[in-house]
Specification:
The complex is a heterodimer of chains A (292) and B (277). With 292 residues, chain A is of the alpha/beta class. Chain A contains 11 helices and 8 strands. In chain A, a hairpin with a 7-residue loop joins strand 7 and strand 8. In chain B, helix 8 links the parallel strand 5 and strand 6. The chains are: A alpha/beta (292), B alpha/beta (277). Chains A and B meet through helix 2 and helix 6 of A and helix 1, helix 5 and helix 8 of B. Bound molecules: guanosine-5'-triphosphate (2 copies) and magnesium ion (2 copies).
């Protein structure tokens, strides 16, 4: 890991004094490699390393640290700062029902996360309403219905309706009738470059004006995380991110890329397939994980 | 002389960004570019405009691993076990494979080995219907090994040409679930001496460096015969497979380029290498 790789470099940097370009160059190189291996986007790493160099150069080396350790400390703090604050909140609207729209690429974990979110909110005393708006994937509606049943949460009956926009509109009307809150809408996975399907999401947004649009992203996403997040944000405006499959060993650098490019908060992380496996986001833990 | 050197280093910087952005990995990219600098020095490349083509050829060469000969045992149905992490595209890829085989007039049986995830069995059943394939399943929560055992008996008894086994998605770091896969393979090996004809790892092209770790663990557990790289219709280049093939020598057999039945193509190393640039 990074500490092991920095060991030999740090051993060479004895003593105190100020950090300068010379004595931090090698450390920055190792850190750059660590971030790229963690899947942080190339351009974002470039900007990040430049900012670190700015912060580090000229700073007084602290009593207890070698220059190399000092650089790592600055990097760690900067990562935490960038990743945003701890969070696990859905912002409820003053005018119920609150409408939450789950969006993202194919297979990222939207359907499972929608159910996990419903479980969390149900445990907190809410009455969530799950809406299956994926009319394309075989058995997608079934999937959400089974999960809803497991949770004993209401699932909107689409009754053979094939238009996702109409499904969403009817579901919102029904939620108001039944006093259900919040509405959690599961949508079909789609590519950020699929114009027709991105337009479908825009139409849904115009129709029901969701309060929270959550981008569900896979923790193992590579360099394209930036373009993916930017496209969804430009098309729809993202309010928050759910990072799934964090129970694996993906370093999760995509999270930094997504956060940097959208400026939106990571609200939850998925840590397994069970419906309980939704956790609050801790920036310090992810920072350590990204550094490796 | 000097001008050419500056030109070259600018070009190599651009290539570094290009290859890393294609998910080839930083260390692997630096290695490739180091070799490139050597080749340029040894005058293997005379003009800087040849550099890109030189690299394309080199990478295409890395991707062309001699396909492990598929053991042709005529006494049993061609058995394919499909594995991979959650959401990579296993079930959909099986649908596409079944469609290809059905177009060749082969008799296909699909086995619902994912007995865990909500509506997984139903999802595969729909693909079976769409491709006129036969279908074997047990109830939700059944032992996947039992489904596999049954499906092998049925494939033989019903005179099927092809048996494709779907398994539940799992993270390669989950020891229990990887053991479950090994058990499924053992069950297959009990019925056919040399085990399944194919064990395919399905990998999402959007995956970053974690893809190498996935491939290593699945290969270690099962000894893969091939990889299917899905979702190449997205903007990700899937460069992680270059490292995977280079290190593990497991070939990429197919690529997935969409969500429909026909969206499966045989892997072409030259096309893939060209598309990276
Ligand atoms: N290990 C793990 N698996 C997860 C997590 N979240 C979802 N999954 C699994 O990932 C796979 C895909 O999840 P889905 O909820 O179907 O993904 P999706 O985004 O709805 O997929 P599409 O609708 O096809 O786009 C399933 O096998 C889930 O059980 C997680 O946090 N950890
Ligand atoms: N764009 C695109 N989407 C794909 C491709 N292959 C699969 N998908 C989509 O990816 C999502 C997940 O596919 P599945 O076949 O359910 O994946 P899986 O590996 O079986 O998932 P689990 O069983 O839950 O682990 C679905 O929405 C598919 O339509 C592909 O080549 N391109
Ligand atoms: Mg879904
Ligand atoms: Mg599946």
């Amino acid at each position: 890991n990074l500490s092991d790789r920095l060991e030999p470099i740090l051993k060479k940097l004895k003593g105190r004094g100020k950090l300068n370009e010379e004595n931090i160059r090698e450390s920055l190189r190792e850190i750059r490699i660590a971030l790229l291996e963690a899947d942080v986007n190339f351009k974002i790493v470039k900007g990040f390393i430049a900012r670190i160099a700015d912060k580090a150069v000229g700073s007084e080396v602290m009593e207890s640290l070698t220059p190399g350790h000092q650089v790592v400390k600055i990097v760690h703090e900067e990562l935490i700062h960038l990743l945003g604050s701890e969070s696990s909140q859905i912002t409820f609207s003053r005018q119920p029902p609150t409408i939450i729209l789950m969006v993202g690429l194919q297979g990222s974990g939207k359907t499972t996360s929608a159910a996990k979110l419903a479980k969390k909110l149900k445990d907190e005393g809410e009455k969530p309403f799950l809406v299956p708006a994926d009319v394309y994937r075989p058995a997608a509606i079934e999937q959400l219905n089974i999960l809803g049943e497991k949770l004993d949460a209401e699932v909107f009956a689409t009754n053979e309706q094939k238009d996702p926009v109409k499904i969403c509109r009817n579901a919102c009307a029904e939620a108001i009738e039944k006093g259900l809150n919040p509405i959690i809408i599961d949508t079909a996975g789609r590519l950020h470059v699929d114009e027709k399907l991105m337009k479908e999401l825009k139409n849904i947004k115009v129709e029901i004006e969701p309060h929270e649009i959550l981008l569900v992203a896979d923790a193992m996403t590579g360099q394209e995380a930036v373009n993916i997040a930017q496209s969804f944000d430009n098309s729809l405006g993202i309010d928050g991110i759910i990072l799934t499959k964090m129970d694996g060993d993906a370093r999760g650098g995509a999270a930094l890329s997504i956060r940097e490019i959208t400026g939106k908060p990571i609200k939850f992380i998925g840590v397994g397939e069970k419906l309980e496996a939704l956790e609050a986001f801790h920036p310090d833990r992810l920072a350590s994980r990204i550094l490796g | 002389f000097k001008a050419k050197k500056v030109d070259e280093s600018l070009m190599i910087d651009k290539l570094e960004e290009l290859l890393i952005s294609a998910d080839l990995g930083v260390k692997f990219t630096l290695q490739v570019l180091n070799d490139l600098r050597k080749d340029i020095k040894e005058r293997k490349i005379k003009e800087s405009r040849e550099i890109k083509d030189f690299l394309k050829e080199k990478i295409s060469g890395m991707l062309t691993k001699k396909n492990a000969e598929i053991l042709c045992r005529n006494d049993s149905p061609h058995t394919v076990m499909v594995v991979g992490v959650n959401g990579s595209g296993k079930t959909t890829t099986i649908g596409k494979l079944a469609y290809q085989y059905s177009c060749e007039d082969k008799k296909v049986l699909l086995a619902a080995g994912d007995t865990f995830r909500a509506a997984a069995i139903k999802q595969l059943q729909i693909w079976a219907e769409r491709t006129c394939s036969d279908f074997i399943s047990h109830q939700d929560g059944a032992d996947p090994s039992a489904v596999v055992f049954d499906s092998m008996k049925a494939a033989k008894a019903r005179g099927k040409d092809i048996l494709i086994i779907d398994t539940a998605g799992r993270l390669h770091t989950n020891t229990n679930l990887m053991e479950q896969l090994k058990k499924i393979k053992r069950v297959i090996c009990k019925e056919m001496e040399d085990g399944p004809h194919e064990i395919l790892l399905i990998m999402d092209a959007t995956t970053g460096q974690n893809g190498l770790s996935q491939a290593k663990m699945f290969h270690e557990a099962l000894h893969l015969t091939g990889i299917v790289l899905t979702k190449l219709d997205s903007t990700s280049k899937g460069g992680i497979v270059v490292q995977i093939i280079d290190e593990l020598k497991v070939p990429v057999k197919y690529i997935g380029i969409g969500e429909g039945l026909e969206d499966l193509k045989v892997f072409n190393p030259e096309e893939f290498a060209n598309a990276l640039f």
